Every structure is written in structure tokens, then in C-alpha cells.
Amino acid sequence: MLSSTVALAAVRFGCYLALLLLVGSAGLALRLSADLNATTERLRANAVRLALIAALALTLGRIASLYGQTWLFFGVDEGVDAETLRIIAMETTWGAGWRVQFASATFALIGAALVRTHVNTGWPILGVGALIAAGSQSLTGHAVEGGWLSPAVFAQSVHVAGAAIWIGSLLAIFAVVLRRKPDRTLVATVIERFSPLALLGAGALLFTGLTTSYLYLSSPADLIWTVYGRVLVAKITGFAIITTLGYHNWQRIKPRLGDVAANDELRRAVAAELAVAIVVLVATAFLVVLPLPAASM
Ligand code: HEM
Q: What fold characterizes domain 2-296?
């Protein structure tokens, strides 16, 4: 049982990472299109390639989660075959949410493949696919227990979108721009454009995270006395560390961008922010499969 929980959490974590990267790299590619020159053109092509890899990983991750959910439901006795997979995908509430997630990931994959082959109609397909992929993440978590139109589903959809806008963009900027040591003015421009997005994403993430916590916890004591609460505290701590690092980058490093030392410092600081974000995502992957505090009493 423990190993299947870990395996399911690992698949869920992989989907989170792919989803965040998909939204972040698609957004970065679009923003780089605003002022194309030889350097930005190359970086934009890299961002599109990253979006394609992320969409493929997300599509495969969705297939793996259907397999995992079917295994969890039917267990070793009945096993996983075409019929049990069909039952979970087509006849359960979980399956209804999964179908939206799978279709949107495939849609984004087709869009990214078209953009990669210079077909411009791929852009809206990629954009819509990535947005629905983020919005539908909550349809297989705790949120959906109150129905698709519940406040929890709304809060969680905005929560995941906020995470994708903030952490996803940071992941894409790190992989496409910072890691490659491009010219310093480009780094300054990209970071200048990223700052308002980061503020928006982090604000939405905090507000909806608090709203969901209020909906899911029966009292603040749950934060100490339940496993769910303790994992949530770990997440909130991670969030506090990332925002502190981000604030430091914004106040201390951003004004100096342009000199070599500041660029190197930024690369290290962003790598540290992303490392903590990965820990937060691992914690989230477990949180979503733990019983809610009210249910575990
Ligand atoms: C960098 C910071 C954060 C990231 C990347 C993040 C990401 C996520 C993701 C991807 C989900 C999964 C939704 C799903 O699969 O249905 C989630 C759920 C959740 N998040 Fe966050 N989050 C962050 C910060 C926070 C904060 C600060 C709070 C609380 C104040 C919070 C509270 C929650 C809660 C309660 C859930 C619902 C889990 C469940 O279904 O039981 N998150 N988060």
C-alpha cells in the first residue's frame, strides 16, 4: 500500500512539473515573440521545444495516472486491463476529470508540435491546451468532492494557474535564458517582464491556498495534530522561503542586472528558489492523496 501511494505521488509530482513547465515555457515563447532578433529567435525556439517536451511528458503522465488509479481501484486481484481502464476512465467521477486533463494535454502537445514546425495556428491550440490543463488539474483532487462547480474547484484551479504563472515561468526562464548565460541586457529585459507576473502568480497562489486551507481544515489545530496539517505547514514554509528569496532578488539583484556578478548571483538565487519549489510540489503530491482532516477524525 505504501509503495503504491509513493508511486502515485511520484506520477502526480511528474504531472505537476510538466504542467508548470508547459505553461511557463509557452508563456515565455510568446513573450519572446514581442521583440525578435537573432538571439531571442533562438531562445524562443528553445522555449517552444521545452513546451513540446513538457506537453509530451504531461500526456504520458496522464496515461500513467489512469493506470495508477485503475490499479489502486481494482488492486492485484482483478489487475489492470483494457476493461478496467475503460471503467475508471469512462464511468467514474475521477475519470471525468481525467478525460479533460488528458484531452487538454494532448491538445497542447499538438499545438506545440505545430508551432515547432512553424505553423502559426499552433499558438492558440498550445495556449488553450495549456490553460485548460492548468484549470483542470483540480478535477482529480480533493476539490472535486463537492462537484465541478464547487468553490474548492474554483479556488484550486486559480491556485494551480498561479503556481504555473509564477513557478512555471521561473522554471522556463531558468532553463531557457539564465542557464545559457545570454547577453546581459536580455536577462534584464526578461526579468523586468517577469516581475509583475511573479507578483500576480504568488498573490493568487497565496490567496487561493489560504481559501482552500480554510475549506479543508476543521480547525487551526489540524495543522499540528493531523498528517495533512503538517504537510500543509511544510508547504506554507516552502512558500515563505521562496517569496523571501524572490523578494531578495527583486530588491537587491534586479537593480544591478547587467553586470556579470549580478547575473551569476541571480542564476544561483533562482536555482535555490526552484529547488524549494520542487520540495513544495513533492509535499503537494502527498497532500492530495492524504485524507482530509475532517475525514480522518
Ligand atoms: C510555491 C508555492 C506553491 C505551489 C507551487 C503550490 C502548488 C499546488 C498544486 C500544484 C496543488 C495541486 C492541486 C491538485 O492536484 O488538485 C496544490 C494544492 C493545494 N495547495 Fe498549494 N502550492 C503552493 C503554495 C501553497 C500555499 C502557500 C498554501 C496555503 C496557504 C497552499 C495550499 C494548498 C492546498 C490546501 C491544496 C489542496 C490539496 C488537496 O487537494 O488536498 N499551497 N498546490
A: Formate dehydrogenase/DMSO reductase fold (1.20.1630)
